[in-house]
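We give the chain.
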Amino acid sequence: MNEGSRILLVEDDPALGAALVCALEQDRWPVDHVTTLADAFEAILQRSYRVILLDRGLPDGDGVALVAAAKSRKPRPAIIFVTARDAVTDRIEGLDAGADDYLVKPFSVAELNARLRAVYRRPADHGDRRLIEAGRLAFDPVSREVRLAERPLALARRELALLAVLIQRSGRVVQRAQLELEIYGLDEEVSANALETQVSRLRRRLEVEGAGVELRTIRGVGYMLRPC
């Protein structure tokens, strides 16, 4: 399973890119946004992505050029073209290049979210849909919903991103660097104690809720979530 869940948005229109990032984050998808093919190539070398939302008409080339390189990564990301190129031949070219889906602009955010959920349900390299449990917690990696003893547990976006990584590696140590990659965007400046602050907030919330898990600090290495 790909334990990462970040989305890479490759879109050069500033207004559309900002609107999509805002909408996706409101729906609790963690997103990185780049505007060129060159930046997209650099991004996939730095991080593992669950999904790449890829425009075709980019300033430095056709988004199709990224597909082969992205699909060579392990684990392989799903790729959804989001583009104004709506001819049948364009769709065929994109899908034949290896994309998993093709969404023509303009589109509704609701439809995009539905397609994202469909991608997360597919087995491929990413495992089947199953609840991941630890203590009294259950996490659905498709809906990104956390439940505590059968009731929904609402978490802030970064708390959710942190828990998503930790619960999928329950009982194992997750290095600080990996957590920072999952929680913070490519262009975000991360202070020295930013991760500790997020961990502390999540730990307190889990303790208050009686989640039946312990969030341990492994000094000099990272953090581990385990049932207690």
